[in-house]
Amino acid sequence: MVDVAVIAGSKSDEAIIRKVCVTLEEYGISYEERVISAHRDPEELQEYIRTSDARVFIGIAGMSAALPGVIASKTKKPVIGVPVSGKVMGGLDALLSIAQMPKGVPVACVAVDGGENAAHLAARILGVA
Known about the structure:
Elements: E1 4-8, H1 14-27, E2 31-35, H2 42-51, E3 56-62, H3 67-74, E4 79-84, H4 92-99, E5 108-109, H5 115-126
Parallel strand pairs: 1-2, 1-3, 3-4, 4-5
């Protein structure tokens, strides 16, 4: 069993993945990391969410940033979204995508590239912080 599932939409999100994982390690929180695109691999993502025993999910995504919302639509567990900065809008597009989830699909949203805060929030949710 792991406490946190860290899912990124692309390998290009590696720097943010590292921020999350380093901070989780500082708390001694168990985690696993995956790169699964909500757009390119929807069936793989759904299966991973369905079979995961993680207590909290962290979704890292840029641009349309659909990943955290898709995760939240497939689980009742807490989901934290980390918007990733981009070349065109600096991450504002991802931030707005994550922050504006529809009713019944809640996603906590941290700052653009805010991997550390996602891990700190996960620790608070788990009662570790």
